[in-house]
Design brief:
By secondary structure, the protein is an all-alpha fold. It contains 13 helices and no strands.
Length: 372
Amino acid sequence: MGGKLALLGVLYLVQGLPHGLQAGLLPLLLRSHGISLTRVGLTRALHAPWLLKVVWAPLVDRRGSQRAWLALSTGVLGLLCSLLAALPPVSGPASNGMPAGAAVLLLLLNAGAAMQDVALDGLAVRLLAPAELGPGNTVQVVAYKLGAALAGGGLLAIAPDLTWGPLFLGLTAAYVLAAAVAWWAPALQLPPLQAQESHCLPSRGFRALLAVPGTPWTAGFVLLYKLGEQGAISMFPLFLLDQGVSAAEVGLWNGMVAVGFSIAGSSLGGVLLARHRQPLPLLKPLLRLRIGALAFQMALLFCFPSSSLGSLLKGAALVSLGPQHFLSGTVTTLTFALMMHCSQQAHSTIQKAGGGHLISQHSSSLRMAATI
């Protein structure tokens, strides 16, 4: 099991890089150059390819192997990063916003990352046994968040003088190495899906997905939770930046410090899963705590403009990022375990519909809700 978890950890760490880059580092960079919060928020439209994962998931299984798609998409990400190294996302006055060339390349970067996610999720579902879901999802979430934190502010805190070009050249090297690992790793050389399972009408396939026990409820829960979670995690650092907190401080606390708390929270989630095996009863009290932490951060933002305790509130706001990411890590690990358990239950239901490729599509549908 250790070899499989190490391999998944490396691949999910690399997968987290573009998310951290665009959800963490890019908004800080744009906002520090005077671009409005509205324009910064509109960059989320570059994540649109993630909404199409459920559409091309069958293609990943019908054409070639999931391993080949994983290696190909990772290599394409390396190529796009090498091009982005020559196109900084900010040029000229703030009113010009992001250059069109950089925006297009970032959109393609999201498309490649979404394709990589489909292939890797499909392989993970087939690799992990039910007893391995706890440690497997812990590794998945911790590695993904570590990659996101490194690209989303951690590198800025470690090397404040790091420029856009060297950053993307380093990402290029990381993707090339990851593509080689994905292609030559023996654990990923799984047999292809059976040929008779590769023909299924789309309408029948979607009905089969919805027929899997727990799918509508799980997708709805994940969608609602991640809408609030992404809003809090993405916007709170920008509000701190507007209140005079430096980009280096935000990058440190929202990057390196936050990833430490997130790893601790995800590890706790894995321990809880190993003991109880049922994620749903564990989620209820944790979600109550998460709502309380969010209410505390909202109160801090309301007090900032009118309070004379500027330094105290600033310290409290930065420190609050730790518990925020700790609870997020715990809840995310439990939520991903809930999603993967639901996807593994899809085997028997989908076999009856005659579409084995829909297993990856089912996993991608749930992960699509988690991405929004």
